[in-house]
Amino acid sequence: MSVSLTKIIEEYIDNLLEENGGDAVSLRRKDLAERFGCVPSQINYVLRSRFAPENGFLVESQRGGHGYIRILQLSFNNCDEEIEHLSELVGSAITEQEARRLLVNLQNRDLISPRERLIIEISMRNQEDNGRTLFDVSPYRRDIMRADLLKKLLTGLALG
Amino acid sequence: MSVSLTKIIEEYIDNLLEENGGDAVSLRRKDLAERFGCVPSQINYVLRSRFAPENGFLVESQRGGHGYIRILQLSFNNCDEEIEHLSELVGSAITEQEARRLLVNLQNRDLISPRERLIIEISMRNQEDNGRTLFDVSPYRRDIMRADLLKKLLTGLALG
DNA sequence: AGCATGTTGACTTATACTGACCAATAATTT
DNA sequence: AAATTATTGGTCAGTATAAGTCAACATGCT
After folding, report:
1. Which of B122, B127, B148 sits opposite A156 (nearest CB)?
2. What is the CATH code for A80-159?
3. Nearest to A156 among B118, B127, B160 (CB)
4. At the top level of CATH, which class does the domain B5-73 belong to?
5. Which segments of chain B are extended strands (E)?
6. A103-157 tens-digit pLDDT
7. Which residue is nearest to nucleotide D9 (CA to C1')?
8. CA distance A116 to A129
9. Structural domain boundaries of chain B?
C-alpha cells in the first residue's frame, strides 16, 4: 500500500501551516507541482479535496502575473466536540422544523451568532425552494439534502 | 515571494487615504508613475483593478493643466443603499471566482466575519456540487443560481 | 467487478504591465 | 478672440505569466 501523492502534498501544506503559526500560508502552484514532480492541476485536486471550506479552510488565489494561492486555516477555538456531536445528531435526514430547532438551540448556547444562524437558515430555505420548484425533489430526499448541507456547515464551523 | 507593483501602489494610496482622514485623496498620475518608475497607464490599471466601485471607491479625474485624480472612499448611510449596491455588483449571474472575490472583499472591509464567509462558501459550494452532480444544471444556470443565493444572503444580512 | 479516489494534460481564463496613440484642459501667442 | 502649444489624463491592444477547468485515464478498495 503506497502513500498517495495527494496525501504527501496535504501533509506538506499542513507542515507549512504549522511553521507559519497556523493561520495562513502562500504558495505558487507551479512551484509546488515542480517540487512534487506532478502536473499543476494536481494541486487543485488536493485543495479541493483536502482544504475545502467544509474542513475549515478558505483558499484565495490569483491568476496571472504575481499569481499565488493562499490557504487560510480558520481557528475559532469553539467547542468543536460539541458541534461535532450535534452533527451526529443531525443524522442522515432532517426536517425543516427539526433543523430550525437545532439552530435555535445552538444560538442560545452561543455556539453560533444570530447572523450565522440567519445565513444558515437562508441557505437551507434556498435549497428547499430550489429542490421543490426547480428540480421536483421528493420531500424525503430534501430532508436528506438538508442534513448533508447542515452537516457540512457544522463540521466546517467545528473544524475552523 | 515577489510583490507586484500594483500591490505596492495600492498600499501607497491606502496610506495616503488613511493619513487624509480616510474619505478622499488627490494625486497626479504622472508623479505617481515617476515615483514608482513605471508607465503612467499603470496607475490607471491600479485604479481600475483596486479602487473600483466593487471595492467601495469612486474615482474622479480631470485632464489638462492642473489635472488630477481624486479617489473617494464611498460610505453608505443606510443598509438599503448598501444592499442595492451589493446586489447590483452580484447581478443576475456570477461565477465562482467572482463570488469568491466579492466575499474576500466584504471580509476585508469587515462587512462579514471569517466565519460568515466560511458558511457562505460552504453553501455555495454545496449548491454547485448538487447542481452539477445531482441535477445536471448547465454552467450558466449555475451562475444564475449562485447569484440568487448570494443576493438572498447579502440582503438577509443587511436587513437582519 | 464496480465504485470511489487519485492523476494527467490539453485547453481556457485571469492578471500584470507596457507603449503607442487619443482626448481634454490650461496657458501663451498672435 | 482665435489659434497654437503645453500639460495632463484615458484607452486599448499586445505580451508575458500564472492559475482554473474538465474529462479521460489510472489506481485502489471493498
Report:
1. B122
2. 1.10.1200
3. B118
4. alpha beta
5. 24-27, 57-62, 68-73
6. 999 999 999 999 999 999 999 999 999 999 999 999 999 999 999 999 999 999 9
7. B63
8. 20
9. 5-73, 79-159
